[in-house]
C-alpha cells in the first residue's frame, strides 16, 4: 500500500501533508498566464508567419527596404492577433464546459450534516452521499447503501458497457454510522477494475477490493442512495488516468501549405540571387561606385524632402550585391501571401457558423445543433478515410426491444419484417419497416431508466396459453426426460417461465407501489419484462423462493442453483423446483446451446433456420432449452458441488460439474431482441462504405453484442467473410488465412472481429503489428470488442501513423476521449454519458446521423473551397509579383517597385480579399437542396408527405473521393496555377511595355507616358483579369457573390484610383485622369485582358470536357484496374519483406508469393483486354 488517507471531520486535515490534487478538472489548453506565450508559439508553427516575421524585421533596415516597415508589420500583427483571438475563443468554450462539469452538484458530509456543494469542492477523505441516477464525482469506497449494502453502477461512460455492475459496501460499515477512519490503498493507476486497500476502523483491519470501489463518471442505479469516502480526486481518478493530454491538431492542408511556402521561398531566393549576381556583374563591369548605388537605390526615405541619404560605407560590389539580394527579397515577399492566413481564418470561421446553423443537423431529441470547437481542420472533414466509432450511445440508443418469441416451430411477434418478397439487406428492411409503421407503430411501454422499449403484440401468445380448442392449441406431445409438454400452449408457458426465472434481475420498487426491473444488461431486462407483459410476472425472491405471478395466480418456485452468464460460458442456467418438478432452465448463444442438446431434437432444424433469418436482420438471439431432473440426479449433483468446497481447485471442479449438468438439453424455443439503433445509423454507415470510408467499431462490450450490432448497423454484411481473433487463437495463422483470402478472392468483402486481450498481445508484438498494418487496407470492416480506452487510442494511432490516413473518431463517453483526441478529427456526441467526449472533441453533434451531412456534404465542400482558394491565392499573387522581377532589368536593379506602395498594400488586404472569402464560404459544385419537411439522410430516405427526388443528393457518397485522394491541392495543380501566373504576369508586363513605351504616345501637355501611367494600366489589367479568373471558376452565384466581385473588389479598386488621383502626395497623383482620357489605355487594356482571358477560357473548356461523366467513368475503370494490380504488387512486396521477420515457414511464404504472382498475371491479362470496354464507354 502506497497511499494513506484520513477521513472524518477530526482526522481529514492530516491529508494536507500529502498534497493530494483537488477535484477540479480542466480540458482547456490555456489560462490567463499561459495564453499569450503558448498561443504565440502555436501561431509560429506556420511557415508563413515565420517568413513574414523575418520580412518585418528586415523592413526596418531603410537601406534595403523599398516600403515603410508598417506595411510588413501591420498585416503580420493582424493575422497573428486574429488567429489568437479565434484560438482563445475556442478555448474559452472549453472553459465553459469545464466549469459546467466542475459546478455539478454533490452532497458532502460536514459537521452540520450532509450539505450540497459542487464537484470542485470535493477533496480526499470527504464522505459523500450519492443519490440514485447521480453521476459519481470522484473515486470512492462505498460504506453504506440504502439496500443492505448492495448497489449497482453503470459504467457506460467509462468502458462503454451499459450493463449494471454490482457493488457492495464494507460489511462492518453498513450496520454502523462510520464517520472516521484511515484507508491505505494502492497508488492511482489507469486500470478501471483494479483496486486494493485496507480500512482501519478502530481496532479492525478490513480488506477493500474493487467490489467496494465506485468510479468517477459512473452512475448509481437501483438503490436510493449510497455513502462513500473519497480516495482519488481530479487527475488521480481512473477516468482521468485513462485520458490523454489534449493535442494541437494541424490539418493536412496546413502542412501542405508549409511545404508549398518552402518551395516558393526557394524560388524567391533563387530569383533574388540571379538579380544580385547580375547587379554585381554590372557593378564590376561599369565600375559603379557606391555614390550611384546610394542615390539610385531604394534605400532612402524621400526624394521630395530634404532628408539626408542613408549612406553606409560599402567597400565593394560584393556587398552591394548582397544588399540587392536583401532589397529584392523584401520587394518580392508578396510571392507568399500573408493575407492567405487571414482569409483562411475568416473562411473557416464562416464555414463553422454555417455548419452550426444547419437545421438538417439539428437533433430534436436533445435540442442540439452541431457545435464547432475547432475550425482549423474544417477541410479534413472532406478527406476522411477511416472512421472509428464507439458503440453504446453512439450507434445505439441504449434501448432494447423484445421483437420475436419462437416456441417450438411457431413464431410470435413482429413477423412483417420477414416477408419473403422483401429484400435481404438489413438497411432496406429497416427502411421498409419504418415506412410501413411510420404512423402505426407506437411503443406501449418505454422505460428509459432500464433502457428497454416494449412494442410486442402479445394477444396471440396470451390467448394460446389458456386455449382449450385443440384446433387452435394443437398437441405436440414433447417429452422432456420424464416430463410431458402436451400442447403448444404448455410449450409457450414453459418458454415464458424460463424467461421469468432464468435471469439476474432485481426489483426496483417505486413510490406508487409498482416496480421495474434492473439487471446486469438491458437485453436481460427486456426478456424478463416481456414475460411480465405476457402475464408471467417475476415478483422477486425471498429466502431462495421466487414469486411468479402466473396468469394472475402467485406461485412459489424454489431456486436451487443459479449459474451466471459470463464471456466464457456464454449461457446462464438455473435449477428450480416448480410444483414438485426439478427443472434446469438454460438460455444462451445458439452455438453453445446446440452443442449441448440431446439427440433427435424435433424443433432444431426449424429454429436454426429462424435464427439465421434473425441474425441477417441484426437481432440479438438466444436459444432456450430445459432439462428435467429426478431427485436422485439432483441430490448427487448437490452433494458433488458441496464436496468441492474448501479445496484448492473449487472453481475448476464446480465448472466441470456444471458443464456435465448442462448437457442433454431439450430445445424449446428462442428469442430475438433488437438493440435499438439510433435513427439512420445503417443508412449513414452504408453511405460511408459507398464513399470508400472504412468504419472500425471500437467497444468495451462483449464479442457477441459487438457482432450483433455490427450486423444491425450493416457493418457486417451477409456477403462478407468474417475472421475472428479471440483468446487462445493462433493470430499468425489467422493473418495468413486473411492474406490467402486477399490473394484468392480479391473481390470478396472481408471483416475482422478482434477481442481486447488479443489486441493487447498483438500491439506488443512488433512483427504482428506490421502484419496487421499490411492487412488493414484490405479489411472493409474491423470490430474491436472488450477494448480499454487506451486500446481505442492505440488503434487510431496505428492507422494514423502507419498508414498515414485521415482518421475520424466519434464517441459519447469518457471512455472515448483518448481516441477522440488521438484522431485527426474528434467528434463528440451529446449523449447520456456526460460531457467528457464533447469537451475533448473538435465538433459536437446530437446524433450519429448528423455525420452524414457533416462529412459527405460540409466536409467535401470545405475541402474543395479551401483547396481552390489556396491555389487561387498563389496564382493572384504570382501574377501581381512577377512584374516586379521583370521590371528589375529596366530600373538598373535598384529595387524600385513598379507598383504604387498603397496598391501593394491594398491588393491582398482589400481589393482581392472579400471575393475569395465569399466564394470559399458559399460556393457549391453540386447544389444541395434542403427539404421543407423531415428528411432522412442517406442512400435511402423516407419523407412525410413529400417524395424525395434529389438524385444528386443520393450520389454525394460517390463524389467524396475528391477530398480523400486530394485531387485538388496537389503539387501538379499547384505548379500549374503557379506557371499560369508567371506566364500571364509576363504577358501583362510586356504587352503594356511595348504598347505604352515612351515613344509611342505623347500627352496633350507634351510629356511622354511615365512610369505610373504604365504601372496603373498594368495594375488595372491585373485586377480585371484575376476577378474574371475567379468568376470563371465560381459555380454558385448569389447576390452576395455579385456584390463581393463588383463592388468590394473592382469597386474599391476604382475608388482607390479616384482618391489617389486627387491626393497631391500620392505617387499616382493626376495619373487616373490622364489614364481614362487616353484611348491607348483602353485599347491596350482590352488587348491584354481579352488575350489572357481567352487563354483561361480555353483551359477551362479543356478541364470541363475532361470531367464529363463518360470520361469520369473511363478514368474510374482504368484506376480500378491499376489499383487492383498495385494492391497485389504491394502485398507481394510486403510479404517478401517479412520473410525474415515473421515466424512463418519459408515454403508457405513462397507459396503465397507464387499465388500472388499468378493473380497478378491474371489481372494483367484482364487489364490488357479491358481497353475495348473503355473504348465502348
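Sequence proposed for the structure above (1177 residues):
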Amino acid at each position: 500500500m502506497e497511499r494513506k488517507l484520513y477521513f472524518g471531520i477530526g482526522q481529514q486535515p492530516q491529508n494536507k501533508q500529502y498534497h493530494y490534487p483537488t477535484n477540479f478538472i480542466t480540458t482547456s489548453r490555456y489560462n490567463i498566464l499561459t495564453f499569450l506565450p503558448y498561443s504565440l508559439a502555436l501561431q509560429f508553427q506556420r511557415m508563413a508567419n515565420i517568413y513574414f516575421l523575418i520580412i518585418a524585421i528586415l523592413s526596418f533596415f531603410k537601406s534595403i527596404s523599398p516600403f515603410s516597415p508598417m506595411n510588413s508589420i501591420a498585416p503580420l500583427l493582424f493575422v497573428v492577433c486574429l488567429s489568437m483571438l479565434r484560438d482563445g475563443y475556442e478555448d474559452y468554450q472549453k472553459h465553459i464546459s469545464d466549469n459546467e462539469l466542475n459546478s455539478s452538484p454533490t452532497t458532502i458530509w460536514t459537521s452540520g450534516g450532509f450539505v450540497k456543494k459542487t464537484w470542485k469542492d470535493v477533496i480526499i477523505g470527504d464522505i459523500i452521499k450519492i443519490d440514485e441516477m447521480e453521476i459519481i464525482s470522484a473515486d470512492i469506497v462505498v460504506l453504506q447503501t440504502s439496500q443492505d449494502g448492495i448497489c449497482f453502477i453503470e459504467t457506460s461512460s467509462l468502458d462503454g458497457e451499459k450493463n449494471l455492475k454490482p457493488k457492495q459496501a464494507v460489511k462492518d460499515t453498513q450496520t454502523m454510522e462510520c464517520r472516521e477512519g484511515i484507508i491505505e490503498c494502492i497508488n492511482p493507476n489507469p486500470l478501471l477494475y483494479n483496486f486494493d486497500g485496507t480500512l482501519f476502523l478502530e481496532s479492525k483491519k478490513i480488506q477493500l477490493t474493487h467490489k467496494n470501489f465506485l468510479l468517477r463518471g459512473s452512475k448509481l442505479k437501483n438503490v436510493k442512495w449510497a455513502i462513500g469516502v473519497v480516495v482519488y480526486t481530479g487527475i488521480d481518478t481512473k477516468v482521468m488516468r485513462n485520458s490523454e493530454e489534449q493535442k494541437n491538431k494541424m490539418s493536412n492542408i496546413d502542412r501542405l501549405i508549409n511545404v508549398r511556402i518552402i518551395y516558393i521561398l526557394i524560388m524567391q531566393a533563387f530569383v533574388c540571387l540571379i538579380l544580385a549576381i547580375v547587379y554585381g556583374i554590372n557593378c564590376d563591369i561599369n565600375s559603379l561606385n557606391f555614390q550611384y548605388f546610394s542615390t539610385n537605390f531604394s534605400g532612402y526615405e524621400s526624394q521630395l524632402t530634404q532628408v539626408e541619404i542613408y549612406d553606409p560605407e560599402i567597400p565593394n560590389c560584393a556587398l552591394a550585391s548582397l544588399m540587392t539580394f536583401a532589397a529584392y527579397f523584401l520587394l518580392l515577399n508578396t510571392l507568399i501571401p500573408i493575407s492567405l492566413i487571414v482569409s483562411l481564418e475568416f473562411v473557416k470561421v464562416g464555414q463553422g457558423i454555417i455548419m452550426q446553423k444547419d437545421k438538417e443537423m439539428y437533433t430534436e431529441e436533445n435540442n442540439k445543433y452541431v457545435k464547432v470547437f475547432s475550425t482549423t481542420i474544417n477541410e479534413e472533414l472532406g478527406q476522411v478515410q477511416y472512421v472509428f466509432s464507439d458503440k453504446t450511445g453512439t450507434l445505439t440508443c441504449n434501448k432494447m426491444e423484445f421483437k420475436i418469441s419462437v416456441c417450438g416451430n411457431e413464431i410470435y411477434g413482429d413477423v412483417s419484417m420477414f416477408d419473403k418478397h422483401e429484400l435481404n439487406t438489413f438497411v432496406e428492411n429497416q427502411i421498409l419497416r419504418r415506412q410501413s409503421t411510420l404512423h402505426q407503430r407506437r411503443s406501449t411501454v418505454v422505460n428509459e431508466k432500464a433502457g428497454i422499449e416494449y412494442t410486442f403484440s402479445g394477444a396471440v401468445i396470451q390467448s394460446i396459453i389458456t386455449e382449450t380448442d385443440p384446433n387452435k392449441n394443437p398437441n405436440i406431445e414433447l417429452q422432456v426426460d420424464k416430463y410431458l409438454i402436451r400442447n403448444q400452449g404448455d410449450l409457450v408457458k414453459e418458454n415464458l417461465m424460463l424467461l421469468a426465472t432464468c435471469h439476474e434481475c432485481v426489483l426496483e420498487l417505486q413510490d406508487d407501489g409498482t416496480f421495474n426491473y434492473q439487471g446486469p444488461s438491458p437485453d436481460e431486462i427486456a426478456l424478463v419484462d416481456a414475460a411480465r407483459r405476457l402475464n408471467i410476472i417475476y415478483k422477486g425472491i425471498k429466502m431462495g423462493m421466487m414469486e411468479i405471478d402466473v396468469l394472475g395466480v402467485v406461485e412459489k418456485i424454489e431456486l436451487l442453483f443459479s449459474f451466471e452468464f459470463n464471456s466464457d460460458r456464454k449461457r446462464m442456467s438455473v435449477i428450480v423446483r416448480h410444483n414438485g418438478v426439478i427443472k434446469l432452465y438454460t438460455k444462451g448463444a445458439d452455438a453453445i446451446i446446440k452443442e449441448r442438446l440431446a439427440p433427435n431434437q424435433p424443433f432444431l432444424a426449424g429454429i436454426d433456420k429462424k435464427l439465421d433469418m434473425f441474425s441477417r436482420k441484426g437481432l440479438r438471439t438466444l436459444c432456450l432449452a430445459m432439462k428435467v431432473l429426478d431427485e436422485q440426479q439432483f441430490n448427487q449433483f448437490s452433494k458433488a458441488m458441496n464436496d468441492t468446497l474448501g479445496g484448492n481447485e473449487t472453481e475448476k471442479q464446480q465448472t466441470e460439474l456444471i458443464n456435465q449438468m448442462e448437457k442433454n438439453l431439450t430445445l424449446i424455443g428462442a428469442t430475438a431482441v433488437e438493440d435499438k439503433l439510433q435513427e439512420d445509423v445503417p443508412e449513414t454507415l452504408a453511405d460511408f462504405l459507398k464513399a470508400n470510408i472504412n468504419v472500425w467499431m471500437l467497444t468495451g462490450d462483449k464479442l457477441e453484442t459487438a457482432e450483433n450490432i455490427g450486423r444491425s448497423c450493416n457493418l457486417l454484411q451477409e456477403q462478407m467473410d468474417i475472421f475472428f481473433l479471440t483468446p487462445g487463437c493462433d493470430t499468425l495463422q489467422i493473418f495468413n488465412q486473411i492474406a490467402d483470402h486477399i490473394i484468392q478472392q480479391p473481390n470478396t468483402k472481408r471483416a475482422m472481429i478482434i477481442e481486447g486481450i488479443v489486441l493487447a498481445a498483438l500491439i506488443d508484438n512488433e512483427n504482428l503489428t506490421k502484419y496487421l498494418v499490411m492487412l488493414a487496407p484490405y479489411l472493409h470492416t474491423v470490430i474491436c470488442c472488450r477494448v480499454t480506452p487506451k486500446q481505442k487510442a492505440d488503434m487510431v494511432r496505428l492507422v494514423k501513423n502507419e498508414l498515414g490516413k485521415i482518421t475520424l473518431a466519434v464517441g459519447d463517453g469518457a471512455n472515448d476521449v483518448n481516441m477522440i483526441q488521438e484522431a485527426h478529427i474528434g467528434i463528440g456526441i451529446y449523449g447520456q454519458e456526460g460531457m467528457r467526449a464533447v469537451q475533448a472533441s473538435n465538433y459536437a453533434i446530437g446524433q450519429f446521423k448528423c455525420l452524414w451531412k457533416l462529412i459527405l456534404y460540409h466536409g467535401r465542400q470545405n475541402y474543395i473551397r479551401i483547396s481552390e482558394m489556396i491555389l487561387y491565392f498563389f496564382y493572384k499573387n504570382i501574377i501581381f509579383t512577377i512584374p516586379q522581377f521583370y521590371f528589375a532589368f529596366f530600373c538598373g536593379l535598384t529595387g524600385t517597385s513598379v507598383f504604387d506602395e498603397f496598391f501593394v498594400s491594398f491588393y491582398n488586404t482589400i481589393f482581392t480579399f472579400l471575393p475569395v472569402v465569399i466564394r470559399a464560404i458559399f460556393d457549391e459544385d453540386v447544389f444541395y437542396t434542403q427539404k421543407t419537411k423531415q428528411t432522412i439522410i442517406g442512400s435511402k430516405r423516407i419523407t412525410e408527405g413529400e417524395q424525395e427526388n434529389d438524385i444528386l443528393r443520393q450520389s454525394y457518397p460517390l463524389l467524396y473521393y475528391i477530398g480523400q485522394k486530394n485531387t485538388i491541392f496537389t503539387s501538379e495543380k499547384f505548379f500549374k496555377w503557379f506557371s499560369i501566373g508567371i506566364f500571364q504576369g509576363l504577358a501583362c508586363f510586356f504587352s503594356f511595355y511595348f504598347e505604352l513605351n515612351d515613344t509611342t504616345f505623347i500627352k496633350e501637355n507634351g510629356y511622354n507616358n511615365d512610369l505610373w501611367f504604365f504601372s496603373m494600366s498594368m495594375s488595372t489589367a491585373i485586377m480585371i483579369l484575376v476577378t474574371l479568373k475567379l468568376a470563371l471558376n465560381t459555380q454558385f452565384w448569389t447576390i452576395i457573390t455579385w456584390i463581393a466581385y463588383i463592388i468590394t473588389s473592382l469597386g474599391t479598386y476604382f475608388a482607390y484610383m479616384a482618391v489617389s488621383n486627387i491626393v497631391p502626395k500620392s505617387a499616382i497623383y493626376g495619373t487616373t485622369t490622364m489614364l481614362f482620357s487616353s484611348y491607348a489605355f483602353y485599347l491596350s487594356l482590352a488587348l491584354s485582358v481579352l488575350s489572357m482571358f481567352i487563354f483561361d477560357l480555353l483551359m477551362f473548356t479543356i478541364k470541363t470536357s475532361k470531367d464529363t461523366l463518360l470520361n469520369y467513368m473511363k478514368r474510374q475503370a482504368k484506376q480500378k484496374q491499376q489499383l487492383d494490380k498495385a494492391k497485389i504488387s504491394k502485398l507481394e512486396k510486403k510479404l517478401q519483406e517479412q520473410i525474415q521477420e515473421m515466424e512463418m515457414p519459408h515454403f508457405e511464404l513462397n507459396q503465397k508469393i507464387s499465388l500472388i504472382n499468378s493473380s497478378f498475371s491474371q489481372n494483367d491479362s484482364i487489364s490488357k483486354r479491358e481497353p475495348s470496354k473503355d473504348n465502348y464507354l
